[in-house]
Each structure stands twice: as C-alpha cells, then as structure tokens.
Amino acid sequence: MIKDRIDKIISSTKGELIHKKLAFDGGFIKVFEECYKLPDGRLINKESISKNDGKDAAIIITRTTEDKYLIVFQNRINNIVSAEFPSGYIEPFEDVLTGALREVEEETGYVSNSAKIIDSMIPNIGTESSKIYIVYVDNAVKKSSQKLDSDEYINYDLFSFDELKYLIDNQIIQSSGNKLAFYHLKDIIHEEEKRSHK
Amino acid sequence: MIKDRIDKIISSTKGELIHKKLAFDGGFIKVFEECYKLPDGRLINKESISKNDGKDAAIIITRTTEDKYLIVFQNRINNIVSAEFPSGYIEPFEDVLTGALREVEEETGYVSNSAKIIDSMIPNIGTESSKIYIVYVDNAVKKSSQKLDSDEYINYDLFSFDELKYLIDNQIIQSSGNKLAFYHLKDIIHEEEKRSHK
Known about the structure:
Chain A is of the alpha+beta class. Chain A has helices at residues 2-13, 96-108, 161-169, 176-196, and strands at residues 16-25, 29-37, 43-51, 57-64, 69-75, 81-84, 87-89, 110-111, 114-121, 132-142, 155-159.
C-alpha cells in the first residue's frame, strides 16, 4: 500500500532536533542556529527563521456579492508591487477564519459571514515551519473604509475571474501562495460551472 | 483596458527603497534593515531576508522514461519530513535549466536532456525577493548514485501521477512551491489526455 511505503520512507528520513539557539532578534525576524541529528547519526547545523513570533498567516480569496475578487497592491521588498489576495498573520487569540475575516476588513473594508479553509502550506520548508492557510471568503460586501497599520499603504481594486487569469498569465500575481490560491479558485469555478450545466 | 488600470494602480503604490543595512549575517541567512519611502511620503522600516546570497532556486518536476515522478524526502525544520520534487539553488555561473538538471542528478542520480521552465514565483514576497523557478524535466533515466553535500541526507522514490495526487490530498506534499508545481503538472497531464483523445 502507498501509505505503508510512504510511512517507511518518512520514518527512515526523520531526524532529531538536538538544540536550537537564538542567533538574531530583529523584532519581526528572528534567526535560530539549530543542530540536527540525521538518521545515520551525523550532526548537522542549520539556520532557521521565524517571522512575527512564528505566527501562522492566511491568504484570503475574497469574492464579493457582485462576483468580483478583492486584489490588494503594496510596495514589497525591492519595490516589487505585485497583485495579491488580502493576507495577514493570525493572532494567537483568534482562530484562522476570524483572523482571515479581520484582515480582509482591515485591508479593504469588506466583510462577510462565509469563510472556509481550503488548503494550507509551508512557504519556505527549508528554513521555516510556519503555515499559511488559504481561505475562501464568499459574499463579501463593503462595510467601511480601510483600517491600516501605521506602516501600511495598500491599494485595492475589484477584478473578475477572467481578469485574475490575466494577472496570473502576465506574472502580475507573483507570490507562490497567491498562485496556488488562484489554482484552487479555478477548481472552485470549474466545479460551479459543472454543476450549473447539469 | 485592464493593462492601463493595473499600471496605474502599481505606479500609485510604488515606493522607494531609501537605504538598506546588513543587520545579521549567519553565513546562509542574512537579515537586512531597510527603509522605504511610501507613495504618501512616509518613511517606514522593514526587515528583509536573503538566503544563500540571494540565489534563485528551482523546483524540478522530474518525469522518468517509465512515466514515474522522482520525489525526495529529507528532514526539514522542526523535523518535518514532507514529500518534495527535487530542488536546489541555481549557482551564479549556470543558467536555470543547467542548475535544475544538476540538482536532480545530485539528489537522485537521474539525468535528462529535456528541461523547460514552466513558471516562476516569489515564495515570501513580504520579506524576500528571490525567485523559485518551476522546471519540468521529462524522459529522465538513472545514470549514477546520489552525489549529496556533506550535510545532506535525502531519500527518494518513484511515484505515479495518481500517487502524487495521494501525496497532495493527504498533505504529504506541504510546501507551497511544490503544491503549485503539482497543479502545473496536472495541467500538463490534462493537455496530454486531451491530445490523445483527438
């Protein structure tokens, strides 16, 4: 069976984290020096990263009652401005969906009662273990203006699904998590179309 | 037109990197303190990361002449062992495809003459600007044994496309770039099936 085969490979590959030491604390980014024991007994050193105290984050596909999608734009590292679904960190006191809906409202002023987790992933598995959830929010409506943090500057606009395809095909959506979210959305739309043709 | 609309949003969001200072150098991971000027004139500080001197990397979907896919397993941060396509950093002296084929050979001993770039992405757009390319390698054959670095321990095995689906559906493939690569592969297989039914 495939499950047994995979379990065997995983257990024969599993190492052991022996110790971990804070090497740098910049406030937002921390770097750790870690020592691992490999399955063959060798000890190796690695550097790992935690951002924002290792909080998980969410990328939120947000579909409005007018069948448009909220896309935000902000100045990223090296002045890259790429199109992104709303996103943000989940705070320790809230669950993923509460945090996701809060982030959408802060970045765009839109609210909704319909949210579900459709995937999760680790963006940089070689250096971090924090997760990003992909959340699908439907029937969003504009309630208020943006409520941005003091160091944020975010523009947003509404795009149709075909316009999202344009953003993907022209590499205007650049982040791996956002691209993955788009593929999930494509599956959702495809399923809707199949149902409506029945 | 959508292009004009997007160009306008991007230029009204674009900031300016004012200065950048090395804050930590761990050998593999560097952290920078950066100051940006936002479009409204405010100055904000950010921390950014560069790994392995900011080299780009590749995730390589590797399909063998027997229509199987090479999947590698290694002990990652916090002892997470996830299934991954072969991957690695592109060295400054080589192009993406040369580096991709080199990494596949080092991690598995498989070689091929058929490689193409099918996508690229930024894994952590909030803190880094390095790219990961998704490369598709076909007709791979076993040539030699693994040639791993002294700190690597990698197991690999061959999986059918349906078995890859199992790895995705059961979250055994966990990295965002690997998940995105799987969706691209799904499109490739889908196109092949359409052509073979014509």
